[in-house]
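[Meeting: bench + compute handoff]

Bench side (C.D.) handed over the final construct sequence. Compute side (W.E.) agreed to return the predicted structure before the next meeting so the bench team could plan truncations. Sequence as handed over:
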Amino acid sequence: MKIDGKEIKYLYMATTKDKYELPIAVADSTKELADMLGMNHKTVSMYMCKSNEFRKGFYKINVEDEE
């Protein structure tokens, strides 16, 4: 996806659920992240859509590449 001439890409990350939130896995898609974690793709997608407290440990990160 391009916005204002910048390529927009997302990374999906799972972290520990303690106060440090250390990365466990980083992937290019929720399906890839689910496979890394041994979870169902729909479960990871659901966590990404829930409120902040419920989804703690799952993040969608916006990465911009200038061309």
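W.E. noted at the follow-up: Helices lie at 30-37, 41-49, 52-55. C.D. will use this when planning the next construct.
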